[in-house]
Specification:
Oligomer: heterodimer
Number of helices of chain B: 26
Largest sheet of chain A: none
Bound molecules: iron/sulfur cluster
Number of domains of chain A: 1
Radius of gyration of chain B: 25 Å
Shape of chain A: globular
Structural class of chain B: alpha+beta
CATH architecture of chain A: Up-down Bundle
Strand content of chain A: under 5%
Shape of chain B: globular
Helix content of chain B: 25-40%
CATH topology of chain A: Fumarate Reductase Cytochrome B subunit
Strand content of chain B: 5-15%
Number of strands of chain A: 1
Chain lengths: ~250, ~575
Amino acid sequence: MSTLDIALWGVLPYLVAVLFVGGLIWRWRYDQFGWTTRSSQLYESALLRFGSPVFHFGILVVLVGHIIGLLVPKSWTETLGMSQETYHVQALVLGGVAGVCTLAGIVLLVYRRRTRGPVFMATTWNDKIMYLVLAAAIVAGLAVTLLGAGATGEGHDYRTTVSPWFRSLFVLRPDVEAMTHADTAFHVHVLFGLTLFAIWPFTRLVHAFSAPIGYLFRPYIVYRRRRPALSSPASRAPRPGWGADRRQRLRR
Amino acid sequence: MRVMAQLAMVMNLDKCIGCHTCSVTCKQAWTNRPGVEYVWFNNVETRPGQGYPRRYEDQERWRGGWRLNRRGRLTLTAGGRLRKLLTIFSNPVMPTIDDYYEPWTYDYDTLITAPVGEDFPVARPKSLLSGKPMAIEWSANWDDDLGGAPELGHLDPMVAQVRERTSEQVLMEYEKSFMMYLPRICEHCLNPSCVASCPSGAMYKRSEDGIVLVDQDRCRGWRMCVTGCPYKKVYFNHRTGKAEKCTFCYPRVEVGLPTVCSETCVGRLRYIGLVLYDADRVTAAASVPDETDLYAAQLDLMLDPHDPEVIAGARREGISDDWIEAAQRSPIHALAKTYRVALPLHPEYRTMPMVWYVPPLSPVSEALRDTGFDGEDVDNLFGAIETLRIPVAYLASLFSAGDTTVVDGVLRRLAAMRSYMRRVTLGEELDEGIAAAVGMTGDQLVELYRLLAIAKYEDRYVIPSAYAEQGHQLEELACSLDVDGGPGMYGSGPFGEASGRPVPVSVETFHALRQRQTSSGFADPESRAAKVNLLNWDGRGTPPGMFPPAAEPSEPPGPAGGSPEASSDAPSGEEQR
Ligand code: SF4
Ligand code: SF4
């Protein structure tokens, strides 16, 4: 266990967590106006029509896969009578299919971005960096899916290395030791993942956190009063734009 | 009964000359920014014509508005909540920029920088989206004045409908066709499908005045509202990634001023006023099974502001007396409900639109005149309304879900008014029979004439004074479109195009005013201080930023030289007054 190991697997995750959570809170408070998908469908719809759903649904399945793989301890699935082999076969099939979809989706989307003039014009540096990190994380992830399932011979069981480390992070006693035993490929994937989370709040990826689930439950027509001041004179003092007053308006 | 107030508009189509002044002034005030180049909150269409965006009325394709499902319940045509969420990654029925038009500018620079040569330099069109040279193929009013109608006229969805309904052709050849202008803004519907389609709940109807707005802070760019609106009056700002729409110029009407489009309308054909309606019955009214009953159902929602019960109900809901009084004087109520000469546009979309149209009599009376008959004679007019099926059927497909009796009735009342007033003007004997033929009295016809023909500013725009009283509190109101001046508009924020803090309108105005009053030269047009906000411009002085800065002069301009710098600086505000 070298200093580098401790820095990477014991300290870095917490720095990223601070950046991620702090960044999200900060951006939510101060940049509501910039919080959007910045959809480019208006410019081009034909490629987006395939690329975007394939990518998004793919990554949602990938998300579920990560939750299962990282949070469910090995002992639980074994109690359920699931052998190492069965687990890996289903992980390879599900994860592989979802991963390939995600990758195909992002390739198509990046291709679209690069070749369709207006979409390319609307691509900022911020977007480009984000795409790079995202694509790297996905490729590395697909690679470890194959590795982990033993597609290249002896499978690496990440559920005895990466997963315990990941869970140990949450109880603030990082199991750096376990992580050092993981394959380099996993290290690379985790590092890309951490980078992605670090830049997340500062990219357009934030739109993931405003997934409009509430739509399923609210009445169709929304009415709002011109301002809360009309009903509660105490909250009148109008403040320009932001800060506490703004939050009141959001809660309304 | 739950009484609510709604600001509504009437447009008298007979008077529209298709000058597009309304569109241009609206654009100057609201959509004069990158990202909304293609956006026209107000547009004027020539009908028959495809409209803007192209063929927006083809709901088979665009699936806007509401429909009744198999059980007779009101549902969004584009699908319910779950379907919306499942198609959120790529909206299958959203128009792309080609359905609007690709906005462009010209390469003006070559005009002045091209080297001396044989050929005259040309400013080529350049796409504002990709920056590449482009061929201009369409725009918001490309088929203006029936341009291209012989080839493209059949693409008007309403032309197809008329053909289906009457098995007659709408003729597009010169001298056989008819034509009218249709200015359109957001309808500020009572049952807005755009609001219902918004997954984030960012769109809302203001409960005080019914104006439908997009909260720019809460919009997340899911684009469902664009599909939801059958009139395609919600637009997507491709720079900020947020939806924008007609605001009924709320900063103006809040202080008692009419909207920019109304104020500047050359034909003076727009009316603004309040309507009181029963909010409890909106859904029921929008759900009547037969499309042709929707107009009647919508009229039925409008409450009589003189009825003591309605007044009591309005007071109960906290509507102030000024507002009730304004509703009583409302030209909208008079034209739509009392005289029934104003009709809603496409009631069959079931959104209960609140911009009403007085259908034009001119296609009929002009056809009459062309045949050599007296176009003002009531019997001739009545006869023409009977026989000229095509214009009437076409108008019906726009304003009454195809029910020609409704349009017939309106045109007859207008025809009666014309003939009756001609006798008044010529000093002939009054003929009450004309009025009786359309179920009105002579006095009513005179009243209608006053409202339609000579109404003054105060009669056309009855905007409640309660707004004015509250005006002073509104200065710092930071609400949806304040962010129009947001830094993202003029460059890239740290997190992409539009991020950063918006500046409240008044702060921006303050800086712009101070800049204008204290500086002697031009401000950098890139600087926000120099932006001309026509919404607040008082008409005095020449705001900096209205003209681009003069390029570095190679030689100093002569004393009498017409350099823009010299001429625009000279008149101070004082002199101009
Ligand atoms: S016309 Fe206006 S209020 Fe009606 S659905 Fe369209 S955007 Fe909404
Ligand atoms: S300004 Fe008035 S007359 Fe001119 S196009 Fe607009 S509505 Fe018609």
